[in-house]
């Protein structure tokens, strides 16, 4: 196995992690920022207040993009398994 192959596999794996996790992380960041601004404006210092809106937003986001995430992960896994015979030649 060539070093460039290993680097390419690592690059693909990291890109897949970014691609799969970015919708959920982006929504969580946006909701957390919005709730933080609301808390700062109203002087409510409750730490658990942002948990329920984040959880609801993540559930909605997962319902919307979960199928795409799963299809993307399945395609990536199929590609890796199809590539196995060529790795050790």
Structure write-up:
By secondary structure, the chain is mostly helical. It has one domain. The chain contains two helices and no strands. It has helices spanning 3-42, 51-87. Helix 1 packs antiparallel against helix 2 (51-87). The longest helix has 40 residues, at 3-42. The model has no long low-confidence stretch (mean pLDDT 92).
Question: What structural category characterises the helix and strand content?
Answer: mainly alpha
Question: Major sheet, described briefly?
Answer: none
Number of distinct beta strands: 0
Question: Distance between termini?
Answer: 7 Å
Total domains = 1
Average the pLDDT over all residues and give the rounded result.
92
Strand content: under 5%
Number of helices, counting only DSSP H or I runs of 4 residues or more: 2
Task: Give descriptors for this structure.
mainly alpha; 0% strand; 89 residues
Write the layout of secondary structure elements.
Blueprint: H1 3-42, H2 51-87
Summarize the structure.
With 89 residues, this protein is mainly α. It has helices spanning 3-42, 51-87.
């Amino acid at each position: 196995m060539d070093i460039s192959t290993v680097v390419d596999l690592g690059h693909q794996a990291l890109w897949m992690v970014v691609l799969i996790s970015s919708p959920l992380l982006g929504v969580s960041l946006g909701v957390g920022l919005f709730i933080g601004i609301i808390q700062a404006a109203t002087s409510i210092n409750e730490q658990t207040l942002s948990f329920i809106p984040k959880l609801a937003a993540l559930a909605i986001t997962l319902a919307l993009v979960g199928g795409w995430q799963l299809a993307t992960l399945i395609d990536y896994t199929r590609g890796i398994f199809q590539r196995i015979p060529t790795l050790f030649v």
